[in-house]
Structure formats: structure tokens, C-alpha cells
Amino acid sequence: MKIGFIGAGHMAQAIMIGLCKQKYVATADILVHSAHETSYQPFAAEHGLTAATSNAEIVKQADIVILAVPAAQTLDIVASLQDELASHEPILVSVAGGISLAQLQENSDSTGLSIVRAMPNVNVAIGQGMTALVTSPITPAADFAQVEQLFQALGDTTPLAEKDFATFSALAGSAPAYAYLFIDSLARAGVKYGLDKEIATKIAAQTVLGSAANVAESSTNPWGLIDQVSSPGGTTVAGLLAMEEAGLMTAVVKGIDATIAKENAE
Ligand SMILES: NC(=O)C1=CN([C@@H]2O[C@H](COP(=O)(O)OP(=O)(O)OC[C@H]3O[C@@H](n4cnc5c(N)ncnc54)[C@H](O)[C@@H]3O)[C@@H](O)[C@H]2O)C=CC1
Ligand SMILES: O=C(O)[C@@H]1CCC=N1
């Protein structure tokens, strides 16, 4: 099976690195092309991938085509590939935020094309991704299963109604950035009290990693886990109350509101 990438930016590279690490296919069976030679050719050479000469070559050669270009350009690129899509009929996977299955279908102008919308996050690079998937009604179950299997190799997946994609994109697509901000804020506080930044970052990252694993494994919800850490009259409850006074929960929800509003505006 050949997996082709149109676009070689942050998201595409994270998926390609994840596929290489998982040895999902032979590296030469990962094909890549993007608008900027300087971004895809050295990357392809470094990882033993096949650099294709055009977007059309990707469509002609790949069984699954992953479109990972800026959302604003996605539909024009699909429209420019109508002939190749119609004659080669790969499974088309778009990771573009805010671009619907109906728009993809309309611009591909190929009524029988299998189309899947995926919203991964950058953690697919280390096999810890969280990806939502939704398929067009005419996509055969076997084609959807191929795409699902690919993303399952790179972490967890969930089928999701298309109407919820903007919310998912905020909570999983963008939220790695928000989690990094939280980790960096913890580390910076450590620096304030004299810790070396590198050591403080390691401490903060491992603490967040362990806490996330605890939430995932525990049958108790996060509030119950917060209570377990908060000793009566202790330090944690003092910290929690100060964070809430500064509006941590409101700040997070407002951040998600803004993320969703931006996606819906595109
Ligand atoms: N960065 C992330 O964490 C996530 C990004 N996405 C989606 O992935 C898509 C790409 O985002 P990033 O990788 O962050 O952007 P990026 O700016 O890092 O990469 C965009 C890539 O598209 C290529 N490109 C632009 N025009 C092209 C054309 N006409 N033909 C071929 N390639 C072209 C560029 O050369 C570049 O390699 C967006 O639609 C975004 O919504 C989805 C989930 C998470
Ligand atoms: O920032 C963005 O627009 C993309 C979508 C989800 C994560 N990154």
C-alpha cells in the first residue's frame, strides 16, 4: 500500500514520522509533495521517503492520499486534481480544519470517490495521537477501515459526527499547544523559585504525563482525583483556590471558545 502526502508541513510531517516509527509501510511507499521543495525534499531524503514531482503524481501513485495543506487552499487543490482523482480513485483523506465532506466531494467532482475527514493532532508523531474520523456516506466501509487502521497505529481514534469537528479540533487538534503552555507555565514557576529551566520542564512534563495517564486509567473523574491530591488544610487546595481566583478554568474555556469561533469563521 502506498500512502501519499500533499503538503509537508507540521501536521503532515508528524503523521509521516509516526508512520515511519511504527514501520506501518516501507518508507519508500510513503510519497510526498508540497509547494515548497525546501520543506519536502530534505525531509523525504532524511526519512527515506519518495519525493514526488507534483500533487498529481501523488494522486496517480498512492492508494491513500492525505491532504495536509492550509485549509484555505484545500478546495482549490482538490479541484485542480479532479482528472487524476477520477481516473485513479485513491481514498482521499483531508485533515483541513473547517472543510466539510460535502465541500470536498463537490470540488473533487468525482461522485464515486472515497473521502474521509480526519482531525489528528501532532502527537501522532510519537504514537500518542488523538484523531477524529468521519466519512462521506458513499465511502465503502472497507476504505474507511483502512484509514481508521492507519490512524489507530498512531494513537487513539474516535468516529465523530461532522457537526462536532470544530469542537474536537479545539480539544484535541489545538490543545497540544495549550497543554505545552501549561507545562511551560509550571516550569517557569519552577525557574522563578530557582530551578534550572530544563530540569523544571522535565519535572513538569512527567507530572502532566503521569496525571493524564491517571485520568485515562482511573474510573474516578478529574474532580475526584483533584480531591485525592488536596490534603485538608494543605498546600494544594491553597494553590487551586489561587488559580481559580486568577480565572484558570474561565481562561481555558474562553481559549476553547476562541478556537472554535475561529474555525467556524473559516
Ligand atoms: N498543525 C497541527 O497541529 C494541525 C493541523 N491540521 C491541519 O493540517 C493542515 C496543515 O497544517 P500545518 O501542517 O500546520 O501547516 P503548515 O503551514 O506547516 O504546512 C502546510 C503545507 O502545505 C503545503 N502547501 C501549500 N500549498 C500547497 C499546494 N498548492 N500544493 C502542495 N502543497 C502545498 C506547504 O508547502 C506546507 O508543506 C491545515 O489544514 C490544518 O488545519 C489539523 C490538525 C492539527
Ligand atoms: O492551528 C490550526 O489552525 C490547526 C488546526 C488544529 C491545530 N492546528
Automatic annotation (TrEMBL):
Segments forming domain Pyrroline-5-carboxylate reductase catalytic N-terminal: 2-96
Main subcellular location: cytoplasm
Compartmental location: Cytoplasm
A biological process term (GO) from this entry: L-proline biosynthetic process
UniProt catalytic activity: L-proline + NAD(+) = (S)-1-pyrroline-5-carboxylate + NADH + 2 H(+); L-proline + NADP(+) = (S)-1-pyrroline-5-carboxylate + NADPH + 2 H(+)
Annotated Pfam families: F420_oxidored, P5CR_dimer
Family stated for the protein in its record: Belongs to the pyrroline-5-carboxylate reductase family.
This protein's name: Pyrroline-5-carboxylate reductase
